[in-house]
Amino acid sequence: FIIPDFIQFTEQIHDIYEICKNDRRGKPADYIPQLARANPDNWGVALCTVDGQRYSAGDTTIPFCIQSCSKPLNYALALTDMGAEKVHSYVGQEPSGRSFNEICLDSSNKPHNPMINAGAIITSSLLKPTLRIADRFDYVHSQYKRIAGGEFVGFSNATYLSEKETADRNFSLAYYMRENKCFPENADLVKTLEFYFQLCSVEITAETGAVIAATLANGGICPTTGEKVLTGDAVRNTLSLMYSCGMYDYSGQFAFKCGLPAKSGVAGAILIVVPNVMGVCTWAPSLDELGNSCRGITFCKELVNKFSFHNYDDL
Ligand code: GLN
Prior knowledge:
Bound molecules: glutamine
CATH class of the domain at 64-262 and 296-304: Alpha Beta
Low-confidence stretches: none
């Protein structure tokens, strides 16, 4: 086993879970009612090792919206489908140094990276572009499900409708990108945006997220099914950009302090990858001023403190 004394390990994880439970800072996102209504008491931590050992504490079977945690998955799927060269002819690899929904492009007029909205909208346009939109959604849904080893992957239509109704910023971004010729030929702006909102509105649980993160930790082979779902190159590139760009405007500090590839979403989830060891998903709806889950960040700091999982520990 990758973690020999798993029982003792999970007792320590449970201790960290309890410590974080006392963290009552922050508040849930409130730009749409479906997120504003979230219960700030919800707190779940689930993990899955690369050899398939599982542990869950708290609210790990309640569905929540994946939101920005969909970005690394869509990027990994696009890479697996069409290769890095093609994908990166449309989107860069540089932290933007700006907020996730800022209307800005890099010096060659491409989105800075696939982990911010601009890059994620373009990445969405690259997913099975020749299929009809319903089949594109089915395709991505079924790929998420494979990456998650068959765990729950749902959809919140109410969230999708709200996202679409309050999307002025994302529409502005898309028009700005169309003006700058960022989209692939034949991409339909409105359909692409709706597709992007739908992918943000996919529902998962913390247990789903743990297996997803574990597949990334395991080079693209889902540890619970043994199925190869993403190429090794796709996972390498995805983890690189999660490491540098995954945590909004806290990404540099998170890389410094925790040294792990991770991606957070506005519903309060964080996908955390400990390469070659395990995937973790934390979920707590209350966010800090940068948009990251307060309890999730506390969890990551405690985790790295206790187990030396930082990329540059133990050199
Ligand atoms: N769905 C929202 C948007 O695209 C927020 C995504 C996120 O988790 N930051 O603006």
